[in-house]
Amino acid sequence: MYTILKKERLNDLVDFMRIDAPMVARNAKPGHFIILRVDADGERIPLTIAGHDATSVDIIYQKMGYSTERLGQKEVGDSVEDFVGPLGQAAHIRDKKSVIGVAGGVGAAPLLPQMKAYKEKGAYVRVIIGAKNKDLLILKSQYEAFVDELYITTDDGSLGEKGMVTAPLERLLKETAADHVVAIGPVMMMKFAAQTAKTYGRSVDVSLNPIMIDGTGMCGNCRVTVDGKTRFACIDGPDFDGADVDFDGLMKRQAYYSLEEHTCKIKLGYHGE
Q1: pLDDT tens digits, residue range 189-226?
Q2: Relative to the CA of 267, which of 33, 153, 173, 191 has its CA 20 to 30 Å away?
Q3: Is residue 222 in some structural domain?
Q4: What is the pLDDT of residue 271?
Q5: CATH code assigned at 16
Q6: In a domain, 261, yes or no
Q7: Pairwise CA distance, residues 126 & 143, whole Å
Q8: How many structural domains comprise the chain?
Q9: Is 229 exposed, middle or buried (CB count within 10 Å of its CB: 0-12, 13-18, 19+)?
């Protein structure tokens, strides 16, 4: 059993947890993820590692379905049944002098360790965080502690610039010598961030964790076409060169099981969004 050492409510939908998991923590690197089960009857939930120390691992999750709601009911001192990892391929921290990180929603969590790694490597780090409104924005103070420049966007203009993350991204690519972009968040956001970076001749990495399910490559649902070849997000990624990802095919795959997911929620007694 894996004990919850710390829990923090980041907003109405998102929680932070620190889990006692020494073997996972010992081998974790930016870009890795874990699979957890809340209890013996629970489904497998893939979550990117948001941070770690010598003995514990940080996760951040959005309560958007039955299993994450059950996870959210756990408190400090409780345990989760399984906490397996680190899984996937560690992110490729490139030799870049100036990097722009772009996060949408809870994508700010997996982006955090990558931006810290770039900063530790000596890069000038700019980060853009986007959310629907100021109440849903997460990890602002954590980024402020180490990045060189931080930009905020909200859909409603309640904090920072009103609009999408691609607007400040395009400005920065025009006005600065930033030579690499890392975009993590909703698939649609990553698609347009990757297109923007490609337009301005910059390299771009994206994280395809939104389509992962079982985390081992056995279910096959996280198949994605990258540079014309079939890849599995959970074992070949989750990070890929964003210029090579077939985002249109990826978005179609995301919608494959929407009806079944809705039916499952109703059968299990979950009536949230």
Answers
A1: 999 999 999 999 999 999 987 677 666 667 767 788 88
A2: 33
A3: no
A4: 45
A5: 2.40.30.10
A6: no
A7: 10
A8: 1
A9: exposed
